[in-house]
Design goal:
Oligomer: single chain
CATH class of one domain: Alpha Beta
Helix content: under 10%
Structural class: mainly beta
Strand content: 5-15%
Shape: globular
CATH topology of one domain: Leucine-rich repeat, LRR (right-handed beta-alpha superhelix)
Number of strands: 32
Number of helices: 8
Length: 819
């Protein structure tokens, strides 16, 4: 017995002295990330004692599928596993010290195990497949919760999370906001793209400073009256008619009301902080109440019919914003249109429609319009004529083409009898009910962009349609398109669409635009092999959020594509694009893209945009010698040597990178548009031979003495647009030699004297904001100046501005001066 005890003791000591086993982490990508975090070599064992010491671990976009082994990292406080392919999060249940957990853009459905992580303060779960959030009721310490882009209907569990200050629930299926009533600590709340009508539960959330409710079904804003701390409020794409309840929200700096049914702007007394206002695509005629908004710098007016303007309104508008304003500022009556007829036609009550018909028929202003005349018409164009009533148009029974875009039409009942129509454009009106279109079964092309349409069921009968435009409406369900198998072109941008399964059978589609919806899964596109153009984002859209696409694998088989647009993608792996060798245009914006190796074989590309990503190595672009347009702004690029051989480049944007040496550009002599702002460039001599340049941006560069630079620029005889913003410039005397300039940006410098500019008589746009200018009298020497920006200067005398405005009626001042 004694020998047995000794033997047992020996084995006990032996076992206790044995070296510990390494932790097994079967997922190679996760294991590699853990080794890197621990400072281990690629094959070094991962020991449990080391894992327990980890406090921070970030494994983003590494293709991780299995978290086994991570349960041993019990000391973790901050864990990021975003943008992977994780479905099972069981191992995380042991990480009870976690305070911050990021799991966005995975494949998670079941979050029950998160209930044990009671120390969490930040939890991010956007872009998953979550329906039930009951387990979150235990996480009482949460301060920030992100659940965007899931499948959540019931948010009752959130009611217990009293410490929440920021909550993001956009793009779910939420209708009832009652559980939010008690979350009185909230300062930021995002609920875009749900099914919300009643916002009364928000009335007591008086600490809110930011609130987003875009793309819902809201009609009344009365419940927001008490939210006096709001600084940003976004209500785009709803059914709001009256914004009077918002008038006491005087702390607002940003207000977004696009795509509603607002027809009146109330007096906005005390709105001294408002900087951005979007009221595009409403029914507004009078904008004189905006006159007192002295800090307003960005204004969108598209899609209204404005006839009453303030006496003076000074706006800080860039080029594209200016275009928005001008489009919104179209008078209701075309100035070249006939004056209203002396006697209106008895059967056509709308005078504007009568005028168009008479002109089309070659009749005088008061000639009678006979039934026989109307029946001769095959085509009618009435674009932007202020038409409201279509009564009488039903008599034109032989019409095959009808253009009615940019009017104020709500009721299209008279169109039901125009059964010969093949082409119909009703874009940018006020149409909600399209039932009358069901009878127009010969239609080949139909445009309904920019309306208020929710239900597209009446389109199901239009089986001859080849082209269909439905962008910027309120559409959620596209099932009625299933039978429209002749469709070759479809545009559905900026709606509220989640499921694109109904498109799967439209095998003849050649062009599809579905940007700015709520789409995560593009698997239904797999069989659409005739597609040549696919836009999964809208680069020019405003208002709604963009799609959040996690997996672009379904694109791999669409080998006929010549044009592809992506943005805000959560799929930084672009390997599936390597098969799309017919591509001519490719845009991938703001998608956390770092590795662009798969693009190396896309040698037919002529236009490539990769802006706002994480790209540092652009070597794969070296063989894309057909490129004429290349946009790489806002990445992490230092070396641009691979661009040296791209001799066809005409348009190159490199601003917002970390570039210091631009020698590789010296032989790109076809360049006409070059953006280099926001880099670390000191030597611009490599630009010497780029004599075709018409636009050049060098702002935020590392020089303040511009004399040597201007000597170089004087050789560029075609240069008309120059940006030298934010360079610490004091003396602009050398610029007087650049007499061909039409656009000049000198904002954010240290300029006091602008007398040298008087030689630049061709200037049309001049940006001088945020300098030290006192005397603006030089402006009176200009003849063609359309826009002047002078905000942030200590100007004493504005009389030269007033005198110049009288000489040049279309002159506009960028912003009002604070005296």
């Amino acid at each position: 017995m004694k020998h047995i005890c000794v033997l047992f003791a020996f084995f006990t000591v032996f076992i206790s002295c044995s070296p510990p086993e390494p932790v097994e982490i079967p997922d190679a990508n996760l294991a590699a990330a853990v080794r890197e975090a621990l400072g281990l070599g690629p094959n070094a064992p991962i020991m449990e004692k080391n894992l327990k010491k980890l406090r921070l671990l970030s494994v983003r976009a590494k293709g991780v599928t299995n978290l086994t082994g991570l349960e041993k990292a019990t000391g973790l406080i901050h864990l990021s596993l975003a943008q992977n392919q994780i479905a099972d999060i069981t191992p995380l249940a042991e990480l009870t010290k976690l305070k911050r957990l990021e799991l966005q853009s995975n494949r998670i459905r079941d979050i029950s195990l998160l209930a044990r992580l009671t120390e969490l303060k930040t939890l991010a779960l956007p872009n998953n497949q979550i329906v039930d959030i009951t387990p979150l009721v235990e996480l009482e310490q949460l301060d920030l919760l992100r659940l965007n882009n899931n499948r959540i209907q019931d948010i009752t569990p959130v009611a217990e999370l009293k410490q929440l200050t920021r909550l993001f629930l956009s793009n779910n299926q939420i209708a009832d906001l009652a559980p939010l009533t008690g979350l009185i600590q909230l300062t930021e709340l995002e609920l875009n793209g749900n099914e919300i009508r009643d916002i009364a539960p928000l009335s007591g959330l008086t600490q809110l400073t930011e609130l987003e409710l875009n793309a819902n079904e809201i009609r009344s804003t009365t419940s927001l009256t008490r939210l006096s701390k709001l600084r940003m409020l976004s209500l785009n794409n709803n059914e709001i008619t009256d914004i009077t309840p918002l008038t006491n929200l005087t702390q607002l700096t940003q207000l977004y009301l696009a795509r509603n049914q607002v027809n009146h702007i109330p007096k906005l007394v005390g709105w001294t902080q408002l900087k951005t206002l979007d009221i595009s695509y409403n029914q507004i005629v009078d904008i004189t109440p905006l006159e007192g908004l002295t800090k307003l710098s960005t204004l969108y007016l598209w899609g209204n019919r404005i006839t009453k303007f303030p006496q003076s309104i000074y706006l800080e508008l860039d080029q594209d914003q200016k275009e928005h304003v001008l489009r919104g500022a179209v008078p209701t009556q075309d100035p070249n249109q006939d004056k209203p007829p002396v006697a209106p036609d008895q059967t056509i009550p709308d005078l504007n429609l009568v005028s168009v018909i008479r002109r089309t028929l070659g009749l005088g202003p008061s000639d009678p319009i006979l039934q026989a005349n109307l029946e001769t018409l095959k085509s009618l164009s009435a674009i932007g004529r202020g038409i409201k009533d279509l009564k009488g148009i039903e008599k034109m029974t032989n019409l095959t083409s009808l253009e009615l875009r940019d009017n104020q039409i709500a009721d299209i009942t008279p169109l039901a009898k125009l059964t010969q129509l093949k082409q119909l454009n009703l874009g940018n009106n006020q149409i909600a009910d399209i039932t009358p279109l069901a009878a127009l079964t010969k239609l080949d092309r139909l445009s309904l962009h920019y309306n208020y349409i929710k239900d597209i069921t009446p389109l199901a009968t239009l089986t001859e349609l080849n082209g269909l435009g439905l962008s910027r409406n309120h559409i959620k369900d596209i099932t009625p398109l299933v039978k429209l198998t002749q469709l070759g072109y479809v545009s559905l941008e900026e709606n509220q669409i989640r499921d694109i399964t109904p498109l799967a059978g439209l095998k003849k589609l050649r062009s599809l635009s579905i940007g700015r919806n709520q789409i995560n899964d593009i698997t239904p596109l797999v069989g659409l092999t005739q597609l040549t153009e696919l836009h999964l984002t809208d680069f020019h859209g405003f208002g709604s959020s963009d799609n959040q696409i996690n997996d672009i694998t379904p694109l791999a088989g669409l080998t006929q594509l010549t044009e592809l647009y992506l943005a805000n993608s959560q799929a930084p792996n672009i390997k599936p694009l390597s098969t799309l060798t017919q591509l001519r245009q490719l845009k991938i914006r703001n998608s956390q893209l770092s590795d662009i190796t798969p693009l190396a074989g896309l040698t037919q590309l002529t236009a490539l945009s990769l802006d706002r990503n994480e790209i540092s190595d652009i070597t794969p672009l070296a063989e894309l010698t057909h490129l004429s347009h290349l946009i790489l702004r806002e990445n992490k690029i230092t070396d641009i040597t691979p661009l040296a051989g791209l001799k066809q480049l005409d348009y190159l944007w490199l601003h917002g990178n970390e570039i210091s040496d631009i020698t590789p550009l010296s032989e790109l002599t076809k360049l006409t548009d070059l953006m280099l702002s926001g880099n670390q460039i000191r030597d611009f001599t490599p630009l010497t031979n780029l004599n075709r340049l018409t636009r050049l941006s060098l702002g935020d560069s590392q020089i303040s003495n511009i004399t040597p630079l201007v000597r170089l620029l004087t050789k560029m005889k075609r240069l008309t647009d120059l940006s030298l913003s934010n360079m610490g410039i004091q003396d602009i005397t050398p610029i007087s030699e650049l007499e061909q300039l039409r656009v000049l940006r000198l904002d954010n410098n240290q300029i006091t004297d602008i007398t040298p500019l008087q030689a630049l008589t061709k200037l049309e746009y001049l940006h001088l904001q945020e300098n030290e200018i006192q005397d603006i009298s030089v402006i009176e020497n200009f003849k063609n100046l359309h826009l002047l920006r002078i905000k942030g200067n200590p100007i004493q005398d504005m009389k030269p501005i007033d005198r110049y405005r009288k000489q040049v009626p279309n002159f506009r001042l960028g912003t009002e001066i604070d005296h």
